[in-house]
Description:
Elements: H1 4-9, H2 12-18, H3 28-33, H4 42-56, H5 58-66, H6 74-77, H7 83-91, H8 99-116, H9 134-144, H10 149-172, H11 177-189, H12 210-227, E1 231-234, E2 240-244, E3 253-259, H13 273-287, E4 295-301, H14 314-320, H15 338-344, E5 362-370, H16 375-379, E6 383-389, E7 391-400, E8 404-405, H17 417-432, E9 439-441, E10 445-446, E11 454-455, E12 458-467, H18 470-491, E13 494-503, E14 506-507, H19 510-522, E15 529-532, H20 537-541, E16 547-552, H21 569-589
Parallel strand pairs: 3-4, 3-5, 5-16, 6-15
Antiparallel strand pairs: 1-2, 2-4, 6-14, 6-16, 7-12, 7-13, 8-11, 9-12, 10-12
Amino acid sequence: MITLIQLNAASQAEFVQLLDGTYEHSPWIAEQAWAQRPFLGLDQLKLALVQVVRDAGREPQLALVRAHPELAGKAMVSKTLTAESTNEQGKAGLTDCTPEEFAQIQQLNADYNARFGFPFILAVRGPRGLGLPKAEIIATFARRLDNHPDFELAECLRNIHRIAEIRLNDKFGHSPDLGNLVWDWHERLSTHSDPGYAERGELTVTYLTDAHRACAQRLSHWMREDCGFDEVSIDAVGNVVGVYHGTDPKAKRLLTGSHFDTVRNGGKYDGRLGIFVPMACVRELHRQGRRLPFGFEVVGFAEEEGQRYKAVFLGSGALTGHFDMTWLDQKDANGITMREAINHAGLCIDDIPKLQRDPANYLGFVEVHIEQGPVLNEVDLPLGIVTSINGSVRYVGEIIGMASHAGTTPMDRRRDAATAAAELALYVEQRGASVPHLVCTVGMLEVPNGSINVVPGRCKFSLDIRATTNEVRDACAADIRNALKALCERRGVHYKLEETMRAAAAPSAPEWQHRWERAVETLGLPVFRMPSGAGHDAMKLHEIMPQAMLFLRGLNAGISHNPLESITNDDTDLCVRAFQNLLEQLATEQP
Ligand SMILES: [Zn+2]
């Protein structure tokens, strides 16, 4: 076991020796990181090593990847792997493959090397550090064969950093206990899934189904029994509400939380992270017998994703007084009204208006969420501070030209609706790229009843625009509408355009954003600011109190709303510690 004190005091040669085996056959990484001593913590050391590799450029990076053995390859068979690799491949069960599995992996190794020219690298101890199942390793291998070569090189490097992280944890005898706790809660909660999906091993939890109510029970149980919350209840819309009193039970509260419903076949971490991270903080406070000078209210919101009923932010909307009573008559796919679902769950509809919170009783709202995008993954940083939740506007439209024979209609006589829509889509892409953090998408394009031998007479499309401010969003929308009008006039076609959704941008409250920044700085990590491209419960709370969010890096290019959604225990541990830092700051600020 080595210590930071030892490492910080080491000569360059000793330093390299102490970190030997962290990066496979690549002592140059430790050699270069040595200059950055002293390291305040293990997290800083890890980041410094990552930075050396980032700065090294493509050739040394390729050499680093090539310094690794093939997975279950010749080196494993001939027992010439490093001790570290033997340990990892053993933990993942690769040292006892069946002949079929072994043959399959050899084929994948050959295909992968032929396509990319370097070996496949996967941190086989996985996001929890305990070893991935063989089937998952093989599936990941096969999936990554389709990646772009540049992306795949970066993905190999990210896996190498994860391998190094786990090796360093072993060297330092470090275990990310808070991260493990939160990670394991996610795993346990994900065993509840709606019928039809559960059988296929897919995660789907929609509003007030049996699985949804089981999740609410599970959350309240953990809040009460494992964490020591003072009050735990399930409110009239199914939100799980836990309160940890301050020294004065009547003191103002910090409000936090996120949603526990999921999209269909979704991921385990979307929403739930923002419930479990503050739960872990309360658990630690309770274990220490500590009270804060303010109350702490953690809400597991019952509904955010709008899957069973067309009512998004139902859970957080009830807290802001925006629960729309006409929603109660909406029917789900089986004809069950929301009113029936709420009654069936034993919840009291008459109590819904009472859920509205008085902002005077709260300090503010914070939310932790997975990023759901590729940015943190790409910059190799575990945490990001949200500057604003993007405002958005959506349209559906249709261009109407004239259907005509593909053989007999000369090119200069056509009124092709699809090429007009294509021109629009290219303009949308170009306009979106013209402003940082503005994003525009034509996600649906359809030629109704199109034929191979007919010039398209109609083309339907959708348009989604998101920006950090309403002004940027609206200027973009106006330009796109003008461009659509102009190109349709020029092409002799006409169009319909209908606005279907509009949501205001929710910029973070500066003082709360700053608290997150200091919380991350205190961990010795760089402050990385970014907008949120997706909507979150914080957007709803923004309407009545100051709010700010913290993002956690997702693996697999940050994929979300997908079973591949993933986070590591080490990143999660940092996230809990950042939240603890925020609570400490608030505690010192209170009179
Ligand atoms: Zn979410």
